[in-house]
Amino acid sequence: MSSCNSCPSKDGCSKDNQKCMIENNPMNNIKNVIGVMSGKGGVGKSSISVMIAKQLRKAGYKVGILDADITGPSVPRLLGLKDKKATSNEQFLFPVESEDNIKVMSLNFLIEDENEPVIWRGAMISNAVKQFWTDVLWGELDYLIIDMPPGTGDVALTVMQNIPISGIIMVSIPQDLVSMIVSKAINMTKKMDIKVLGIIENMSYILCPDCNKKIKLFNGENVEQFLESSNLKLLGELPMTSSICNLSNNNYENKNDSLEELFNPIVDNMLSVLKEN
Ligand SMILES: Nc1ncnc2c1ncn2[C@@H]1O[C@H](COP(=O)(O)OP(=O)(O)OP(=O)(O)O)[C@@H](O)[C@H]1O
């Protein structure tokens, strides 16, 4: 199964082949793997993963989403795929495809009832994530977006050790950005030698519906200083808005314009940082 040839990191890899823990599926050819991470839960990681995938797809790239948030998978619902099931043969698991041809694998596609909790020990969860990398027939992808579990625990570590991540996008809300919550996550990526492409500050402001003025709810003054001292780029700020909140209602196409306006610059920034690598 292990094959450097099918590894997205093969061109810039400095790993000792004997010590590398990453197994690659030779049937897959995935050019870039982007992890979307947050210091804690509920800050918009899944919504942002889905929107980045959609924008990349719109730009013509072949895109997949690996939902590594095993105990709280929300990607299927956000893409209108919550009633779908994945199929398999003796060798592979086949991803489910969204209407706009994004390939998705999530634990929700493998369990009977999405309302049942996944009561698994850490090792089982980690194994599921590893299998989503090794056993899923992703085929050829330009970008695989990984919706990481929140925080810096066991599964985040499994993802970083077992999947050749090209870069991480850190999602934060304003109050957390200059706190130890984000610093911990950033320090984890440093220890694992994985590049942070930048930070997305979600729920950063609201837009006045009458005058379109940006209203910042949190008066943090240290953000720029924090970014500079951590040598991190702000990929973008997102408002608290109903168009993001209602993503799971799947009338994405109707409010396409505002979402596209919000996410296009973020994706452009992400791609230019990736190119610099
Ligand atoms: N910018 C935003 N404006 C309004 N609502 C938002 C915004 N971003 C996220 N939300 C809402 O916040 C909730 C949490 O979002 P989401 O599930 O994307 O976060 P998460 O970090 O992936 O959560 P978890 O850690 O549980 O996986 C959802 O109800 C989502 O609709």
From TrEMBL:
Transmembrane segments: none annotated. GO terms for biological process: iron-sulfur cluster assembly. ATP binds at G39, K40, G41, G42, V43, G44, K45, S46. Belongs to the Mrp/NBP35 ATP-binding proteins family. The lineage of its organism: Bacteria, Bacillati, Bacillota, Clostridia, Peptostreptococcales. GO terms for molecular function: 4 iron, 4 sulfur cluster binding; ATP binding; ATP hydrolysis activity; ATP-dependent FeS chaperone activity; metal ion binding. The keyword Transport does not apply. Homodimer. Gene3D superfamilies: P-loop containing nucleotide triphosphate hydrolases (3.40.50.300). It comes from Romboutsia lituseburensis DSM 797. This is Iron-sulfur cluster carrier protein. CDD domains: Mrp_NBP35. PROSITE patterns: MRP. Keywords: ATP-binding, Hydrolase, Iron, Iron-sulfur, Metal-binding, Nucleotide-binding. Binds and transfers iron-sulfur (Fe-S) clusters to target apoproteins. Can hydrolyze ATP.
